[in-house]
Design goal:
Layout (H helix, E strand, L loop, with lengths): L11 E11 L5 E11 L3 E5 L6 H9 L6 E6 L2 E2 L10 E4 L11 H5 L1 H5 L4 H14 L15 H13 L5 E5 L7 H22 L2 E6 L2 H7 L2 E6 L2 E6 L1 H6 L4 H6 L6 E7 L3 E4 L2 E4 L19 E6 L5 E2 L16 E10 L4 E7 L4 E3 L8 H5 L8 E2 L2 E3 L3 E7 L10 E5 L8
Helix pairs in contact: 5-6
């Protein structure tokens, strides 16, 4: 399988080199993972369910054995070091609090086990509680707390240990939408404080790509145990390294269509989008080899602009540059609206489990031959979605025309 190595990070606190996990059942959950996390850095592992992100985190924590590869904390190989001796703290999805202990006792539990003196233990518990806004709740038990408060206690129990590595496994998935937004900022504030004070590296697992993009210094995208790409949120959004990353990152997801590439245009179904120098533009020199062949073209929903008056029912000239489409549904979200449409270009879906081979070989066949091969599922009708300002007058049933900046197209 294809390997993607994240760029080396100087002063790595955590270094995974060829990290692999094969379970006794023969299932390979993680396949040759190469990833570094610098001291003070916040790195997010993201991907669909079953992609191996939690297994990777548990190997770092020492809760899963490593089949092959090397795991280092600084210069020390820790493959066979017990979890207790790794200097890591972990926050779980289900909080894992002791129901019979108070908030203060839950936070200080690990310190008591380590025989930390009472005065030092109390100081660190009060400090952690102050950072997390739990100062008035130290005498309560978990059953008397809200979900957000219980999550803060779980975080307090982790940070009070002053770990070298802070691990979080989908800690916000049990919270409602408003609390998730609030807790994201809380986690980032705590992580920044730990990073600046102690150089603590943080590794965070989530299936929510919005959460990943808003929190991570860098984001590592996994699929079927393989690292597809690692970079800053902006790098993943603007320069996805694969069809899967392009379709996974972004909400709503990128629209993907089968198209034919000409030197000065892209042909999508019966429609032709002028793209001056499409196959020879700087930065797109690799497209020259695909001239006259089938390609997959991506356009993000926010890059589709409804032409003024296009939703009036009168229609625009079919000769104008852009894409003509039929509106099926308009979702009003307050600050924006989602316009779901259908046009005659064949839609493409990025499969979550199979690697993409050469696009021309996958799509293949005649114009009317829609096939499913090598990770591409070609649908008989090409549906898409556009994000527009809330007051653009578009209704279901309208025939509209979208304009597209050629620079915003992905190939």
């Amino acid at each position: 399988m294809r390997r993607v190595s994240a760029s080396a990070v100087s002063g790595s606190a955590v270094s995974m080199e060829g990290l692999t996990k094969v379970f006794a059942t023969g299932v390979q959950a993680v396949d040759g993972l190469n990833l570094q996390v610098a001291a003070g850095e916040f790195v997010v592992l993201v991907g669909p369910s079953g992609c191996g992100k939690t297994t990777a985190l548990r190997m770092v924590a020492g809760l899963e054995t490593i089949t092959s590869g090397s795991l280092r904390f600084g210069d020390r190989v820790v493959n066979d070091v017990s979890p207790r001796q790794r200097d890591v703290a972990m926050v779980f999805q289900n909080y894992a609090l002791y129901p019979h202990l108070t908030v203060a006792q839950n936070i200080g539990f690990s310190l008591e086990n380590k025989k930390v003196p009472r005065a030092e233990r109390d100081r660190r518990v009060r400090e952690a509680a102050g950072v997390l806004g739990l100062g008035d709740l130290l005498g309560r038990r978990p059953g008397q707390l809200s979900g957000g408060q219980r999550q803060r206690v779980a975080m307090g129990r982790a940070i009070v240990r002053e770990p070298a590595v802070f691990l979080m496994d989908e800690p916000l998935s049990n919270l409602d939408a408003k609390l998730r937004v609030q807790m994201r900022s809380e986690i980032l504030r705590v992580q920044q404080r730990l990073g600046e004070a102690r150089g603590t590296a943080s590794l965070y697992v989530t299936h929510d790509q919005t959460e990943a993009m808003t929190m991570g210094d860098r984001v590592a995208v996994l699929r079927a145990g393989v690292l597809e790409q690692c970079g800053t949120p902006r790098e993943l959004y603007e320069r996805p390294a694969s069809l899967f990353v392009g379709s996974f990152i972004g909400s709503p997801a990128m629209n993907l269509y089968e198209a034919a590439l000409e030197r000065e245009a892209v042909v999508m179904g019966s429609q032709r989008i002028p793209v001056p120098g499409a196959a020879g533009r700087p930065g797109r020199e690799g497209l020259a080899a695909y001239q006259g062949r089938k390609v997959i073209v991506g356009v993000r929903p926010e890059d589709l602009v409804v032409r003024a008056g296009a939703g009036s029912g009168a229609g625009s000239s079919e000769e104008e540059a852009g894409l003509a489409a039929d509106v099926r549904l308009v979702e009003a979200l307050g600050s924006e609206q989602l316009v779901h449409f259908t046009m005659d270009a064949p839609q493409v879906h990025a499969d979550e489990t199979v690697s993409e081979a050469d696009v021309d070989d996958e799509v293949g066949g005649s114009e009317g031959d829609r096939v499913a091969a090598g990770g591409i599922l070609a649908a008989p009708a090409a549906n898409g979605v556009a994000v527009t300002p809330p007051r653009v007058p578009v209704r279901a049933g309208d025939r509209v025309r979208f304009t597209i900046d050629p620079e915003a197209l992905y190939f």
